[in-house]
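Is iron/sulfur cluster placement plausible here? Inputs below.
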Amino acid sequence: MADAASTAPAARPAPATPTGLVPVLQVHPLTRCNLACAHCYTDSGPQASLALSPRRLAGCLEDAHALGYRQLAVSGGEPLLWPGLGGLLAQARALGWHTTLTTNGLLLDDRRWQVLAPQVDLVAVSIDGSPEAHDALRGRAGAHAATVARLSVLRRAGSAFGFISTLTQHNLDGMESVVQLAVEQGAVSVQLHPLGLQGRAARDLCDARPDGHELMAAWVEARRLTALYRTPVHLDALGFDQLEPWRDRLVPRRPVRLLSAVAPLLIVQADGQVLPLTHEIAPPLALGSLHDAPLAALASTWLDRGGGDQLVQACEIAWHDLRARGAGRHAALDATPGLHAHAEGDGGLPVDWFEEVARHSQRLAARRPPSTGWGADAWGWAPDRRLPARGAWPIGLSSAGRAPACPPGLSPG
Ligand code: SF4
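Reply from A.M.:
I modeled the complex. Tokens:
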């Protein structure tokens, strides 16, 4: 591994570059955390002990750079508890990457942050609705007030920060208080991220994932709050009317020869597992573990065995399924003119694209006979050869059309 400080820096994306327009490496270096939130999809907590070594992640980052990744999103566990954080962020910056850090904010202090601040472009601080809703989800009375008190550390350092809020089926009514708080505290944006059902969330909040109606309500509310408070409120969701124009970007062309083309969001878990797109992707589509091989080797083997093409198949099916469902939903809305006007005017009904792809990947994996190899079309899906040329991936698709505080797929830290 070359010394990051001696590596000639590439051109860094401008700070205003929307998240998702460059491939993102999302790193969860540890599962230890000072909280044990009900919605935690990484199963983090004070007793959790999974952690990656700084050396292994430094090698991963270098490989990811060679594979075309240009943004580092560090989450956790609580990343401020990981001893290698400063070194990893500095390495990313030396390579010219954009850097974000997701934190619950409770461990921010001036002395530590003065060292880290120059290495971080944007801090995503977790705020989940009203103080009462936040404390309930976080499992600690006073957690909301304690986090808000620590925001002054970021302001004193001149660090840009936004709020990231987990959207459940039950907490949309508290999001206005989050946006009000953002205005009061100087946060640059609010990102609403639909609850994912992994880890503790799958056990404790299995009925709290927002359904289609709740996502639609959130979509409308995000537009309203953006206009009312003049603060970008981003919902991690895809509008049905974005399916056609973004098709070439949502469904990359096969055969896949470049990892970042089909996995513009690459996740590294604290156990070393590397996953494309989302924590909920079907296990057969995981690249493997950094404990077994470096990222470069995992990526090469994955592409050779057809992992990229398999993932595109899941994207293709998700895209066709959504288009068909979208037509049906719009027809149904014709009977409700007011609601239809909202949906049309606000970009169509939203869906969680990553959840849709994950769901279809799991169905395909369940259908795949054990003896079937990883060759193209091994899952029996007829490829669509009419796909247009590949382009950049629109991870940053947004109800407000603005950059989110951190990439979709991150849980609040
Ligand atoms: S959601 Fe974030 S703050 Fe809560 S336990 Fe998980 S990593 Fe820690």
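Short version: The chain has 14 helices and twelve strands.
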